[in-house]
From TrEMBL:
Keywords: Dioxygenase, Oxidoreductase. Gene3D superfamilies: Aromatic compound dioxygenase. Its EC number is 1.13.11.3. This is Protocatechuate 3,4-dioxygenase alpha subunit. It is an enzyme of class 1 (oxidoreductase). It comes from Agromyces hippuratus. GO terms for molecular function: ferric iron binding; protocatechuate 3,4-dioxygenase activity.
C-alpha cells in the first residue's frame, strides 16, 4: 500500500482560456442576417479577425448591435427567428477558416445629437479571458466622426482602428486586430455609457 504520509509533488495544469467551445454553442442560423440582404437599406459589414502575430483567427465569434437608420434602438424580440421584413439590431457571426466574418444590417443613424453613427462590436476569441468591446464607425461620416466625443478622444494614430472603410456600394470592411501592430482600440463596458462625461473611461491605449 502506498505511503500516504509523504506528500507527492503537484504537477502544474495548463492555463485555461476562452474557447474554442463557443464556436459550437453560440452560432445560430440567421445570426449574421440582421437585415435581409434584399432589402434596399441593407448594408454589408465584413472583415477579418487577426491575432497578435497578424495571422487570421479561424474560430472567433463577432457580435454587433446597432440602431436603425433613424437612430432608434430595436424593440423587436425573437432574434433567433429572423423576420425577413424586420430588424432586430443584433447579430452574431462565426468567422470562417480564414478568420473572415460577414453581416448584413442597416447603417445606423446617430442615437443622440453630437454622436456619430456606429455599431457596437463584441469579440470572442481563443486566448481571450473576457470578450472584448469596440465600435465600428463609418468612413463616409467624416464630419460626424470628427465631432463624436469618444472617437475624437482616441489617439489620432489609432483612430482608424475604429472606422469601417467603404469598399463597395453598401459594403464596409472592419478588420479587428487583437494585439500587435495596428491593434484595435478596445473599450471597457463603462465607456459605452451614453453619458458624455464618461466617454473614453477605461479605454485601452
Amino acid at each position: 500500500m502506498p505511503d500516504q504520509s509523504t506528500p507527492r509533488p503537484l504537477a502544474q495544469t495548463p492555463a485555461q482560456t476562452v474557447g474554442p467551445f463557443f464556436g459550437y454553442a453560440l452560432p445560430y442560423s440567421g445570426g449574421p442576417t440582421v437585415r435581409a440582404p434584399w432589402q434596399p437599406d441593407a448594408i454589408r459589414l465584413h472583415g477579418t479577425v487577426f491575432d497578435g502575430a497578424g495571422d487570421p483567427i479561424p474560430d472567433a465569434i463577432v457580435e454587433i448591435w446597432g440602431a436603425d437608420a433613424a437612430g432608434r434602438p430595436s424593440t423587436e424580440r425573437g432574434v433567433l427567428e429572423r423576420d425577413q421584413h424586420g430588424f432586430s439590431g443584433f447579430g452574431r457571426a462565426a468567422v470562417d477558416r480564414d478568420g473572415h466574418y460577414v453581416f448584413t444590417t442597416i447603417k445606423p443613424g446617430a442615437t443622440r445629437d453630437g454622436l456619430a453613427p456606429y455599431l457596437l462590436v463584441t469579440v470572442f476569441a481563443r486566448g481571450v479571458l473576457h470578450h472584448l468591446f469596440t465600435r465600428a464607425y463609418f468612413d463616409d461620416e467624416a464630419a460626424a466622426n470628427a465631432a463624436d466625443p469618444l472617437l475624437s478622444s482616441v489617439d489620432p494614430a489609432r483612430r482608424h482602428t475604429l472606422v469601417a472603410v467603404s469598399d463597395a456600394p453598401g459594403s464596409y470592411r472592419f478588420d479587428i486586430r487583437l494585439q500587435g501592430e495596428g491593434e484595435t482600440v478596445f473599450l471597457e463596458f463603462a465607456a459605452l455609457d451614453p453619458a458624455p462625461e464618461r466617454r473614453g473611461e477605461g479605454m485601452r491605449r
